[in-house]
Structures are given as structure tokens and as C-alpha cells.
UniProtKB/TrEMBL annotation:
Residues 17-239 form the MacB-like periplasmic core domain. This is FtsX-like permease family protein. The chain crosses the membrane at residues 18-38, 266-290, 310-332, 371-389. Belongs to the ABC-4 integral membrane protein family. LolC/E subfamily. It comes from Maribellus comscasis.
Amino acid sequence: MIGSIAWRNVWRSKSRSLIMIAAIAIGLFAGVFTMAFMRGAVDAKIESATKSELAHLQVHAPRFLENNNIEYSISDAREMLSKIETLHGVVAASRRLIAEPFVMAAHGTGGGKILGVDVENEKRVTDIWQHLVDGTYLEKNTRMPPVVIGQKMAKKLQLRVGSKINVQMVDIDGNLSSKGYRVSGIYKTTNTGYDETHLFVSYNDLQTQLGVKENTAHEIVVLLEDGTNAPVIKPEIQNIAGNNDVQTWKEISPEMSLLTDSMDQYMYVFILIILLALCFGIINTMLMAVLERVKEIGMLMAVGMNKRKVFVMIILESIMLTFSGGFLGILLGTLVTKFFETTPIDVSMFSEGLEKYGFGSQIYTSLQPNTLFTIGFLVIVTGILSAIYPARKALKLNPAEATRSE
């Protein structure tokens, strides 16, 4: 009974109700789509970082990450790899040698990090070979050992496939070691900072130049079937790694962890700001509706409707108004988001700036079901809170005075 009266009251002023419903729908559509867009951008950045750069877990010798000192290495890398690959949930693992070289080319110099990798194993763990824009992935076609470099470094040093570079570094004995490499491939990821500083050579070539023993590694990278299981599988790998350090990708890259953990909080703050703005609009609409019906409300009280029912009626009117707009906004936002889950949004006009921070120029939206439930709950709460003040105004009416008002 109260519900049906409240529903009829909502549509007494159709134009005002429709405008309010449209405002709520547009606001929530913008909120849902923005959340899905930002979540998609962050998910893509994390996927790119774990597939191309970090993998899901890494093993290092103690103190190696403090300054990348090549003396701190894992001595039994091959045996450790074999044991790690037998664990449930592990897709592949690969060993790496790492050094910080000085790169000299005909048109400039540069620095960064050079990684010596087992080519076939590395292909199973990371996808740099799939990001080649020119050449091949460490295929030796000349007498000089091959090197794969990023497109950003290639542009900076004016290099192309077939160019020669000279790589200098300090070997395990503390001597300066210099070796020539031939560019066999150029890759491009969504992170230009990574492309500018990371070079890939074969494990054997870097092992020879550094003078380290066979079967040693500075880093073991592990790819899992599901990256969210990294904290679960970490203790099992730690048992195999002994005194070596085992870290998840979130521990290795705390800025990525912060981005992931804080994204939902930022987005809910964004939604709350939208709902807060809509809240004032709903209060204004409901207050106008109450003031226009002072005489009617007074008559309802005079014929026996108690204050609790009047309060519930106005609260229901506000919830119906808010829920109608909220439902339309969430539905529209969900449909548009679903479309862009399979059709990328092209933001290539901002690619230069985005790629500096590791974001791609094509973004797929991503919307979690729990996000929709949370937004729906917030919409209903907003409707209730927005109706409290107008409802209290109605409760303060004196039935005798209200029935005499015009």
C-alpha cells in the first residue's frame, strides 16, 4: 500500500523525476565506465610487467638486489630449476645472469641492465620474443654473439638489426671486460623505460664475458599458471631455494603492488564523490516534492496515517527515484563496458606519455561483479540518506495547520 502510493508520488511531476533519474543514470554510467577503464589499464600494466619483465616469482642470492653485485650468485641453479618446475602450479622457470654494462655504439653510449638468458627457457617464462618489431630473438647468424635491444635504445643509439655494439663491464675478477655483439633483434613493450635500459644476450655469452662458473645464476624467474597464487607457492619455492631470497612480483615491484591495492580505493572514492553530488540533487527534488504536498500530507495525518508511515513513504519515494536512475546507469555502464572488453579503446594519441609509465596505448575495460554489487549498495544508501531531511520536514508538519495551507 505505502509502496504503491510512493511509486505514484514519484511520477506526479514526470519531467522533474525524469530529469533526476537521467542525472543519476549519467553519473553512475560515468562512474562504472571510469572504474572499468582504470581497472583495465592497471590489469594490462600488471600483465605486461609480469609477462615481459618480472614473471610471478624470483629467486636471488642474498644481498644481490641491494646493488646487483655479480659476486652474489646462486651456485646450483640448474638443480634448483629442475625442482621448481616439478611444483604444482608452476608453468616454467628460467635462470638469468645479470650485469650492468656500459654500451658503446657508433652514434652514442648508454647503460642499463644486460640479461644472459637460456633462450628456449626464457621464451616459456617471458614474452619479449613476441614483442620483436625487427630481426630475430638471439639467433646467431654471424660470428659475433647476438644481442636483442629495445626500440627506445635503438633510436637513442641509432642502431638497427645488424649493427655492432661494444659492451663493457667488470668481470668476476674485477677486471674490465669488453665484448662486441651484433644486434639480432629489436623489441618494443608498453614500457619505454624498460626498452631503453634492458638488453638480452645468451646465457653462455654473458657467462663467458663475466667469467662466472657454469651452473650459476643471479636470478631465477618463475611463471605460474595463476599469478594470484604467488604468495601460496612462495613457501614451497623457499624450501627449495634454501638461504636464497624468494620474492613475489609485488615484493619486487612495490610500486606495482601499491597501484593494485590502492586502485579500488581510489575508484570507490570517485564513485562516492559522484553520489555525494547526486545526493544534493535528490535532497532538493524530494524537498520540493514534500513542500508541494504539505496540505496532502497534513490530510493523510489527519485521517489516521501515523508519522512512521509518512516517513517510510518519503524514504521509499527517494529510494525508487534513486534506484531507477542507478539501475539504468549501472545497466548502461555494464553494457558499454562489456563491449569494450573485447574491443580495445585506442588511446594512441597519448601513447608517448602512457608508455613512460608502462601503460599500453590500447586498453580493454575490466569490470568485476563485486564492483557492481558495491555500487548498487551505495546507490540504495544514497537514496535513503537523501530522503532523511525531507522526511523529517514532513514529520514536523502540524496536521491542523497543514490542511489549512494552500
